[in-house]
Amino acid sequence: MEVPLHQGFVLAVTIMREAIDEFRRFQRDKEVNSQLYSKLTVRGKVQVKSSDIQVGDLIIVEKNQRIPSDMVFLRTSEKAGSCFIRTDQLDGETDWKPKVAVSCTQRLPALGDLFSIRAYVYAQKPQLDIHSFEGTFTREDCDPPVHESLSIENTLWASTIVASGTVIGVVIYTGKETRSVMNTSNPKNKVGLLDLELNQLTKALFGALVALSVVMVTLQGFAGPWYRNLFRFLLLLSYIIPISLRVNLDMGKATYGWMIMKDESIPGTVVRTSTIPEELGRLVYLLTDKTGTLTQNEMVFKRLHLGTVSYGADTMDEIQTHLRNPYSQTQPPAGGHTSATPPRKAPSAAPKVRKSVSSRVHEAVKAIALCHNVTPVYEHRAGTPAEAEDQDFSDGNRTYQAASPDEVALVQWTESVGLTLVSRDLASMQLRGPSGELLTFSVLQTFPFTSESKRMGVIVRDESTAEITFYLKGADAAMSSIVQYNDWLEEECGNMAREGLRTLVVAKRALTEEQYQDFESRYSQAKLSTHDRALKVAAVVESLEWEMELLCLTGVEDQLQADVRPTLEMLRNAGIKIWMLTGDKLETATCIAKSSHLVSRTQDIHVFMPVTNRGEAHLELNAFRRKHDCALVISGDSLEVCLKFYEHELVELACQCPAVVCCRCSPTQKAHIVKLLQQHTGRRTCAIGDGGNDVSMIQMADCGIGIEGKEGRQASLAADFSITQFRHVGRLLVVHGRSSYKRSAALGQFVMHRGLIISTMQAVFSSVFYFASVPLYQGFLMVGYATLYTMFPVFSLVLDQDVKPEMAMLYPELYKDLTKGRSLSFKTFLVWVLVSVYQGGILMYGALLLFESEFVHVVAISFTALILTELLMVALTVRTWHWLMVVAEVLSLGCYVASLAFLNEYFAPQMESRPAFGHGGHGTARWWPPPQQHLQCVRSIMGTVAGSLCAHPSSTITSPVTLTEWPHRTCSNTWLLGHTQTVAVVATKLVRVTLLYRAEGKWARLRPYLQAHVTCPRSFPQNLGPTGHGRSSLCTEAPRSLLWPSVPAGPGLRSSQPAAPCPCPKPFQPEYVSHTVRCPSVDPCGPRERRRSFQGF
What we know:
This protein is an alpha+beta fold. It folds into five domains: 37-182, Calcium-transporting ATPase, cytoplasmic transduction domain A, CATH 2.70.150.10; 195-268 and 734-907, no CATH class; 277-294 and 562-723, Rossmann fold; 300-329 and 358-379 and 395-556, 3-Layer(aba) Sandwich (Calcium-transporting ATPase, cytoplasmic domain N); 931-1093, no CATH class. The chain has 36 helices and 34 strands. The strands form seven sheets. Strands 13-32-31-30-14-26-29-28-27 form a nine-stranded mixed sheet, with helices on both faces. A hairpin with a 6-residue loop joins strand 8 (135-139) and strand 9 (146-150). Helix 12 packs parallel to helix 16 (586-595), helix 13 (513-527) packs antiparallel against helix 14 (533-542) and helix 23 (728-768) packs parallel to helix 28 (826-854). The longest helix has 41 residues, at 728-768. The two termini are 26 Å apart.
């Protein structure tokens, strides 16, 4: 028995696809490993491949070149001893990050002097954290040895790109020990709900296959080696299992992804995970970030509050006037120091004098212009000399680079009011005043912003006055305990938040030279520590953060993205519940929720009060339970307490709300919320965000969508789908998600139907012919059925659409039915099973009826009807015709018609060209007669044997082979001669049964049955059996003597015109294969008589 060849085709397609993907990966790896870099040696520069770089090598990396391995930054061609690198391929952030060369090596006169010193680098073991590093650089050829601490600012990680200058570094990690490789984990293998449902249906089909095979063997009577027949039926009916389903679905998903990326209505959309496009059509919960997702993340400075006076967009000209006064006066007014240039006075015990408004505005604007990590970048202009380019501070070619758009907005605002940042490096900063004068400041220390501290600071020295000032800015929650007591900060923060503004508190502290030197000594000592360096450094910095002077409160506006309101309304009408998870303040999040119509203005909002213990959480949950149809707003701290004690109750109540807003959420909490929804509801979730803090929830969700925003590409690279604007989510879900799910459901059911219908026909065929385990179709027919004849029309269903995209967008309520899974369920599966069984039975029995009455070939009729049925089923299912669907239908039908000319051995009427229903080792043909004539043959042989037994009950039949020689003596019975093989097999089996009963002494039980049901003909020969040496006069009797008296001669038996006898020089020697007999290739009666006997078949 042969294994169906279509299974090999499916396996070949899968292997080919995997081989192509693997070859592409090999090419990418080879391209990266073959990049050439300059290696610095004692003899000079040599070129090495990136794959040959080792730890300890000195590597030179040019501008715009990728860094091949993790290195410590030793030297640079920049005069300031620093450079900028781009890290968008490492952490997704698009801002340029400054890096500092080791001062000991940067001060060396020449590049070759690196080989004249004796030094070593101590580095910690490889870590996952890309934002921290601890190490030391020690030079031993000095007295005393020089020790310099190394931090993240002194490192160059692999996969980053040098943005300015040329750098030289010493390699510390290579290969799998680099930060980029260690942070490259295998992506989560997301499996769609449709795939899980199809897997369950496939399991059910496998059970049906086993059950049907057992039934067939049982009805066969467990004759012979029943286990062998069981395996034969398992192979014959294996089409029940949709083996080609996976290939069709994978190709369909690739088509859906191509359609999404080619949709002009959502330009820039990228499908990064092609295995779950159907998930876009099954979503129930959509969890979205606020900043950069619902908003543009393009900050615009809106308000400056000084405690007693507030400046808005309409009063910004007053700030320019106040700022211009201090720089235009040579003497300070009585209100206090307002000029930036008066000499520094020693602190005194004199009582504080209330400053004037101009002085306070000046100090606030100067603090905003100095406290940041913004770097101005100037575009190179052709024709500008290199010397003049360094001093070209014109506004036309200047842009700002920073890690946060908030800082860029603040620096741009200071430029608009007259105080411009013109240059910045690691050691100095220059500002240009309203009158064009340059103000130079030395940057002594910089404390970057962290998510733990929620603030950043800088210590600067005014070069003109030698004043040292510590500036600090951060969130109100972190700064309220640091600044001096005031009665307006908390209230004004709430007011700005209700207006939808993002707030920052700015403060300062003046330091004496002694205070700074003490701080710098302790700070340097903490940085040299190799254990708990971060904690020790933070403790030293916190020693300065107390009783700071509150300067101002700033408010910037993050405007909503285009079409956010209609998009959210469309998603709500589609039955999708939207949750907003943000790290912003409660007031700001609530304001954005209302302005974006996430929460309607007429809808009540329940603000979950802050709770700290189990009792408070219990009381607040009871209060929330009494509310109905209201939106929930909860903070991250309260959420943490409730999830600790009342996880199930909180999730159950929150799922009943039309909208939920979670503020002050950490990235870990966002991912935890997604996981809770999946576990408690079992529904499909989608997370959408734009920043690195959204990556965790994007990867946790069933479907992740990333937006390429101002905060970088990290979320976009980690997501399953990448879009450019939030408004594209509506079309992505309502149009493409819905179409992908319905198309895959139809495709999967048609592939299963295609296997069920041909398996039904095989089962009917086997049952008609006494449950014989012989194939109905084989060879190219089986391969062509699943590929050339039906694959293209069935696969063309991926182009079908029940409604137009415009209608789906206009009526998003159509999306609701998809969440219930009605397009593919056990109910629809059972309907398709019944349809397949009905169609397969009708086709097979219809072919047998036509075969009996008109002698048309059973294989030709049934297979042609099967192909036409599949094509018509696809045509009747299509809702919207595409020209490729018509091509697929016509092409498949044309291929089948054309194949008739090449596959005549399957459809030709001559018996010689009819292939076997099962091939033996020699490929010779076997023939099964029609059921009616088969029955006549069985009855004739049964009457012959019964008559012989009636006449000679004591005779002994020792060899069944003699029966196979009877019809070959003469050809007086034309029809019987044409079916010699069948007659021989049936007669041999009957004789074997007789021998069995005689040997066991049970002949007495069988003889009454034969005497009661068999009438012994009078004209039976008396020399039947070995007494006649295997020969009989049966062949010379009239043809009617072989037929049952009550059954007329079958069609094709020409008894009125007896055929001339033909010589039989060599009797048949049948070989027993399965339940049939392999016939010799030589026709003893000649081809003419055979064609005349089977005329019309």
